[in-house]
Amino acid sequence: MLMGRRAFGTLLLAAGPALAQQAARPVVLGQSLPMTGPGFTTANRVRAGALLAVERANAGGGVLGRVVELLTLDDGGDPRRLADNVRRLRGQGALAVLNCVGEQACHAAAGASAAVGLPLVGPFSGDARLRSPTLRHVFTLRPDDAHEAQLLAGQLRVLSVAQVALLADGYEPVREAALARALQADGIAVQRLPVDPTRPAAALAQASAAAGAAVLSLGPDSLETLSQTAFTTVVGLPAMLMTAPSTGLTEQMRMLRGHGLGFTTVLPNPESSQLPLVRDFGRDAERFGSPDAITFEGLGGYLHALLCIEALRRGRSADTPADLVRALQAWGRRPLGGFDLSFAPDQHHGSQFVELGVRGRDGVARR
User: Fold this and answer.
1) Taking the mean position of all CA atoms in its chain, how far away is CA 249?
2) Residue 216: pLDDT band with limits 50, 70, 90
3) Domain tally for the chain?
4) Residues of the signal sequence (predicted)?
5) Could you tell me if residue 177 is inside a domain?
6) Rounded to whole angstroms, how far apart are CA atoms 312 and 161?
7) How far apart are CA 143 and CA 42, in angstroms?
């Protein structure tokens, strides 16, 4: 009997760490995205990428022995619902809000997350106002709109383009203004063609008469309408099409199939880059059964979640949002999967990466 009791006690001691791990609270990362409505296709890709990072982490033991959970709430593209969702995420123990899509959503996310004491990591917006020194809880992984706009304008100038049509639907007015300023600063004449999101094909058909090149700045409403249009019947598109999207790049490439498209991107090409980050992303998509995540938006979601996970591991504590903020600020200048990032207490904008890409008529995106 004595031997049995000792053996039982030994089993309890051995099982203790495993039981403690099962009982430990999960590490929760939150999202509020338009999982219904016109923004769904982009939001779903962002979520799929973030989920790959979470599954990767859990397959490797989680964070400090705790399971990581991704909690995604649907806001339908409504900034007021987004703000409500951020409060719900705080109440459900989230350590951060990951991502937001577009200028309006990201401003709502920045305000709501500040009010409840959550960091906002990885806005899908280059609005320079998100880089205000007063927003000490916002951590971006991309340059602002001006950097992308300058690169795009410079390329058009190299190609001897003297006049462009700027087709914009008002979804991201700050971005549209940055594009117009950069083009004009490079001596390129700009004719602005307002796009009605309910009739975007009509504006596209005017572009050829306006200029030999068109720069697109379209939001999810316009893209959804175009997806329901026999797009190949749109005539009069200029030979040269360029876009500097903060969201919806994959949709634009899909719908403009058969047309050459130049674009700026703040992320490496998810289909061809040799960075370890991108190779891991592809392997994780195959491993966890999510090949649809392999898009620019999916890679963004993956990178943002992966940063939070790795920062928490290095920080040795994952109990409060403040733990994550300290861990991010202590990141320093360190690449993540070969992708250069730099964060510090006075540096919350971790990447200045931006490059030009081309999607050929064959549908393949290239640098």
Assistant:
1) 11
2) very high
3) 2
4) 1-20
5) yes
6) 48
7) 20
112 and 34 in a common domain: yes
Enclosing domain of residue 216: 145-265
Average pLDDT (273-293) is 92
Average pLDDT value for residue range 341-358:
95
Structure tokens at 159: 């190609």
Residue whose tokens read 């989230």: 94
Phi, psi angle pair for 250, to nearest 5°: -60, -40
Cα–Cα distance between 116 and 86 in angstroms, integer? 8
Query: SS3 of 258, please?
Result: coil
State how far the alpha carbon of 109 is from the alpha carbons of 81, 87, 159, 366, in Å: 10, 10, 39, 33
Q: By C-alpha distance, which of 60, 69, 66, 64 is closest to 28? A: 69
pLDDT score recorded for residue 364: 59
**Residue 42's closest CA among 297, 311, 304?**
297
CATH at residue 88: 3.40.50.2300
Residue 78 located in a structural domain? yes
